[in-house]
Amino acid sequence: MQALLSSFRACRVVAFDADDTLWDNQMHYRKAESDWASVLAPFGSREELSAALYEIETANMAELGYGTKAFFMSLIQTALKVGGDRLTAAHTGRILDIARELLRNPATPLPGVEETLSKISRSARYKTVLLTKGDPLEQELKIERSGLGKYFDFIDIVSAKTVREYNAIFSKYGISPSEFLMVGNSFKSDIAPVLELGGYAVHIPYHLLWEHEVMEEYEHPNLLKITTFSLLQDILP
Ligand SMILES: [Mg+2]
Q1: Which of 1.10.10.10, 3.40.50.1820, 1.10.1530.10, 1.10.150.240 would CATH assign to domain 27-103?
Q2: CA of 37 relative to ligand 1 center, distance in Å
Protein backbone atom coordinates (compact mmCIF):
# COMPACT_ATOMS: atom_id res chain seq x y z
CA MET A 1 0.00 0.00 0.00
CA GLN A 2 2.80 2.47 0.89
CA ALA A 3 4.60 1.64 -2.38
CA LEU A 4 1.40 2.25 -4.32
CA LEU A 5 0.82 5.59 -2.60
CA SER A 6 4.41 6.63 -3.37
CA SER A 7 3.85 5.76 -7.02
CA PHE A 8 0.61 7.78 -7.05
CA ARG A 9 2.42 10.75 -5.56
CA ALA A 10 5.17 10.52 -8.17
CA CYS A 11 2.60 10.94 -10.97
CA ARG A 12 2.80 14.21 -12.88
CA VAL A 13 -0.74 14.15 -14.23
CA VAL A 14 -3.86 13.18 -12.27
CA ALA A 15 -6.93 12.86 -14.49
CA PHE A 16 -10.51 12.71 -13.29
CA ASP A 17 -13.54 11.23 -14.97
CA ALA A 18 -16.62 13.47 -14.69
CA ASP A 19 -19.98 11.64 -15.03
CA ASP A 20 -20.71 9.63 -11.87
CA THR A 21 -17.29 10.54 -10.48
CA LEU A 22 -17.69 14.31 -9.94
CA TRP A 23 -21.49 14.51 -10.32
CA ASP A 24 -24.53 12.24 -10.79
CA ASN A 25 -25.27 11.16 -14.33
CA GLN A 26 -26.56 7.60 -14.49
CA MET A 27 -29.46 8.26 -12.11
CA HIS A 28 -30.73 10.97 -14.47
CA TYR A 29 -30.53 8.51 -17.39
CA ARG A 30 -32.37 5.85 -15.39
CA LYS A 31 -35.12 8.35 -14.60
CA ALA A 32 -35.33 9.43 -18.25
CA GLU A 33 -35.59 5.81 -19.37
CA SER A 34 -38.29 5.14 -16.80
CA ASP A 35 -40.29 8.23 -17.89
CA TRP A 36 -39.87 7.20 -21.54
CA ALA A 37 -41.13 3.69 -20.76
CA SER A 38 -44.20 5.23 -19.09
CA VAL A 39 -44.94 7.21 -22.25
CA LEU A 40 -44.63 4.02 -24.31
CA ALA A 41 -46.50 1.79 -21.82
CA PRO A 42 -49.28 1.09 -24.40
CA PHE A 43 -46.68 -0.58 -26.65
CA GLY A 44 -44.82 -2.89 -24.32
CA SER A 45 -43.77 -3.83 -20.81
CA ARG A 46 -40.94 -2.00 -19.10
CA GLU A 47 -38.66 -5.02 -19.69
CA GLU A 48 -39.52 -5.30 -23.38
CA LEU A 49 -38.96 -1.59 -23.93
CA SER A 50 -35.63 -1.60 -22.08
CA ALA A 51 -34.40 -4.61 -24.02
CA ALA A 52 -35.37 -3.00 -27.35
CA LEU A 53 -33.66 0.25 -26.31
CA TYR A 54 -30.47 -1.53 -25.25
CA GLU A 55 -30.23 -3.26 -28.60
CA ILE A 56 -30.75 -0.05 -30.57
CA GLU A 57 -28.35 1.94 -28.36
CA THR A 58 -25.67 -0.70 -28.89
CA ALA A 59 -26.15 -0.64 -32.66
CA ASN A 60 -26.05 3.19 -32.71
CA MET A 61 -22.99 3.60 -30.52
CA ALA A 62 -20.31 3.47 -33.22
CA GLU A 63 -22.03 6.21 -35.22
CA LEU A 64 -23.55 8.36 -32.47
CA GLY A 65 -21.15 7.96 -29.56
CA TYR A 66 -22.23 8.93 -26.03
CA GLY A 67 -24.45 11.63 -24.62
CA THR A 68 -28.01 12.83 -24.47
CA LYS A 69 -28.40 13.62 -28.17
CA ALA A 70 -27.32 10.07 -29.05
CA PHE A 71 -29.63 8.70 -26.34
CA PHE A 72 -32.53 10.78 -27.68
CA MET A 73 -32.10 9.32 -31.16
CA SER A 74 -32.16 5.82 -29.68
CA LEU A 75 -35.27 6.66 -27.62
CA ILE A 76 -37.10 7.88 -30.74
CA GLN A 77 -35.88 5.00 -32.90
CA THR A 78 -37.03 2.47 -30.30
CA ALA A 79 -40.37 4.26 -29.93
CA LEU A 80 -40.92 4.02 -33.69
CA LYS A 81 -39.98 0.36 -33.64
CA VAL A 82 -42.36 -0.61 -30.83
CA GLY A 83 -45.16 1.89 -31.59
CA GLY A 84 -45.14 1.89 -35.38
CA ASP A 85 -47.99 3.95 -36.81
CA ARG A 86 -49.60 4.15 -33.38
CA LEU A 87 -46.85 6.50 -32.21
CA THR A 88 -48.33 10.01 -32.15
CA ALA A 89 -46.96 13.55 -32.09
CA ALA A 90 -47.98 13.68 -28.41
CA HIS A 91 -45.79 10.64 -27.60
CA THR A 92 -42.89 12.11 -29.56
CA GLY A 93 -43.29 15.50 -27.87
CA ARG A 94 -43.14 13.91 -24.43
CA ILE A 95 -39.99 12.00 -25.37
CA LEU A 96 -38.43 15.25 -26.58
CA ASP A 97 -39.24 16.89 -23.21
CA ILE A 98 -37.64 13.95 -21.36
CA ALA A 99 -34.45 14.31 -23.40
CA ARG A 100 -34.34 18.06 -22.91
CA GLU A 101 -34.64 17.66 -19.16
CA LEU A 102 -31.78 15.16 -19.27
CA LEU A 103 -29.67 17.63 -21.23
CA ARG A 104 -30.10 20.09 -18.34
CA ASN A 105 -28.52 17.79 -15.75
CA PRO A 106 -27.55 20.26 -12.99
CA ALA A 107 -24.17 18.49 -12.55
CA THR A 108 -24.19 19.23 -8.85
CA PRO A 109 -20.88 18.04 -7.38
CA LEU A 110 -21.14 14.82 -5.33
CA PRO A 111 -20.40 15.07 -1.57
CA GLY A 112 -16.82 16.01 -0.79
CA VAL A 113 -15.84 16.50 -4.43
CA GLU A 114 -15.37 20.26 -4.47
CA GLU A 115 -13.41 20.41 -1.22
CA THR A 116 -11.17 17.53 -2.32
CA LEU A 117 -10.50 18.92 -5.79
CA SER A 118 -9.71 22.31 -4.34
CA LYS A 119 -7.03 20.76 -2.11
CA ILE A 120 -5.53 18.58 -4.84
CA SER A 121 -5.48 21.44 -7.35
CA ARG A 122 -3.47 23.57 -4.89
CA SER A 123 -0.71 20.97 -4.76
CA ALA A 124 2.22 21.86 -7.01
CA ARG A 125 2.95 18.15 -7.33
CA TYR A 126 0.37 17.31 -10.01
CA LYS A 127 -1.27 18.77 -13.08
CA THR A 128 -4.99 18.06 -12.88
CA VAL A 129 -6.99 17.07 -15.94
CA LEU A 130 -10.72 16.55 -16.35
CA LEU A 131 -11.02 13.69 -18.84
CA THR A 132 -14.54 12.91 -19.96
CA LYS A 133 -16.11 11.22 -22.95
CA GLY A 134 -19.26 12.32 -24.71
CA ASP A 135 -20.74 15.17 -26.65
CA PRO A 136 -18.33 18.14 -26.33
CA LEU A 137 -20.95 20.89 -25.91
CA GLU A 138 -23.03 18.86 -23.45
CA GLN A 139 -19.96 18.04 -21.36
CA GLU A 140 -18.71 21.66 -21.48
CA LEU A 141 -22.07 22.92 -20.24
CA LYS A 142 -22.09 20.39 -17.39
CA ILE A 143 -18.57 21.44 -16.38
CA GLU A 144 -19.74 25.05 -16.38
CA ARG A 145 -22.86 24.30 -14.32
CA SER A 146 -20.85 22.21 -11.85
CA GLY A 147 -18.54 25.14 -11.08
CA LEU A 148 -15.63 22.68 -10.91
CA GLY A 149 -13.76 23.81 -14.03
CA LYS A 150 -11.47 26.10 -12.02
CA TYR A 151 -9.85 23.15 -10.26
CA PHE A 152 -8.42 21.69 -13.47
CA ASP A 153 -5.30 22.72 -15.35
CA PHE A 154 -6.67 21.11 -18.51
CA ILE A 155 -9.97 19.73 -19.80
CA ASP A 156 -10.11 16.96 -22.41
CA ILE A 157 -13.39 15.77 -23.93
CA VAL A 158 -12.93 12.62 -25.97
CA SER A 159 -15.31 10.42 -27.96
CA ALA A 160 -14.23 7.20 -26.19
CA LYS A 161 -11.79 6.11 -23.47
CA THR A 162 -9.76 3.23 -24.85
CA VAL A 163 -5.99 2.64 -24.96
CA ARG A 164 -5.91 4.76 -28.11
CA GLU A 165 -7.23 7.89 -26.39
CA TYR A 166 -5.06 7.33 -23.29
CA ASN A 167 -1.95 7.01 -25.48
CA ALA A 168 -2.91 10.29 -27.13
CA ILE A 169 -3.21 11.89 -23.67
CA PHE A 170 0.27 10.66 -22.70
CA SER A 171 1.73 12.17 -25.90
CA LYS A 172 -0.16 15.40 -25.43
CA TYR A 173 1.21 15.95 -21.92
CA GLY A 174 4.64 14.50 -22.70
CA ILE A 175 4.45 11.87 -19.94
CA SER A 176 5.03 8.15 -19.70
CA PRO A 177 2.14 5.91 -18.54
CA SER A 178 3.81 5.49 -15.14
CA GLU A 179 3.46 9.25 -14.57
CA PHE A 180 -0.31 9.11 -15.06
CA LEU A 181 -3.04 8.47 -12.52
CA MET A 182 -6.69 8.15 -13.54
CA VAL A 183 -9.60 8.50 -11.08
CA GLY A 184 -13.04 7.30 -12.13
CA ASN A 185 -16.14 5.18 -11.58
CA SER A 186 -16.08 3.03 -14.71
CA PHE A 187 -13.74 0.04 -14.64
CA LYS A 188 -14.11 -0.35 -18.39
CA SER A 189 -13.42 3.26 -19.40
CA ASP A 190 -11.36 4.74 -16.56
CA ILE A 191 -9.42 1.83 -15.12
CA ALA A 192 -8.77 -1.16 -17.43
CA PRO A 193 -7.17 0.71 -20.39
CA VAL A 194 -4.93 2.73 -18.06
CA LEU A 195 -3.71 -0.39 -16.23
CA GLU A 196 -3.14 -2.13 -19.54
CA LEU A 197 -0.78 0.69 -20.58
CA GLY A 198 1.15 0.70 -17.29
CA GLY A 199 -0.53 3.68 -15.65
CA TYR A 200 -2.09 4.02 -12.19
CA ALA A 201 -5.77 4.13 -11.28
CA VAL A 202 -8.13 4.87 -8.41
CA HIS A 203 -11.54 3.26 -8.82
CA ILE A 204 -14.49 4.90 -7.04
CA PRO A 205 -17.57 2.85 -7.97
CA TYR A 206 -20.87 4.70 -8.23
CA HIS A 207 -24.01 2.91 -7.04
CA LEU A 208 -25.43 2.74 -10.58
CA LEU A 209 -23.53 1.58 -13.65
CA TRP A 210 -24.65 1.93 -17.26
CA GLU A 211 -25.15 -1.54 -18.80
CA HIS A 212 -22.73 -0.63 -21.60
CA GLU A 213 -19.95 0.00 -19.06
CA VAL A 214 -20.25 -3.34 -17.27
CA MET A 215 -17.16 -5.55 -17.31
CA GLU A 216 -15.48 -8.11 -15.09
CA GLU A 217 -13.38 -6.24 -12.51
CA TYR A 218 -10.04 -7.48 -11.22
CA GLU A 219 -7.30 -6.55 -8.79
CA HIS A 220 -4.03 -5.07 -10.00
CA PRO A 221 -0.85 -3.81 -8.28
CA ASN A 222 -1.34 -0.33 -9.85
CA LEU A 223 -4.95 -0.05 -8.73
CA LEU A 224 -6.62 1.23 -5.57
CA LYS A 225 -10.35 0.94 -5.01
CA ILE A 226 -11.95 3.42 -2.60
CA THR A 227 -15.51 4.10 -1.49
CA THR A 228 -15.64 7.87 -1.46
CA PHE A 229 -14.04 10.76 -3.33
CA SER A 230 -13.00 12.56 -0.13
CA LEU A 231 -10.44 9.84 0.63
CA LEU A 232 -8.35 11.27 -2.22
CA GLN A 233 -7.31 14.12 0.07
CA ASP A 234 -5.13 11.74 2.04
CA ILE A 235 -4.05 9.72 -0.98
CA LEU A 236 -2.88 12.75 -2.98
CA PRO A 237 -1.52 15.28 -0.48
MG1 LIG B 1 -18.01 8.08 -15.29
Answers
A1: 1.10.150.240
A2: 24
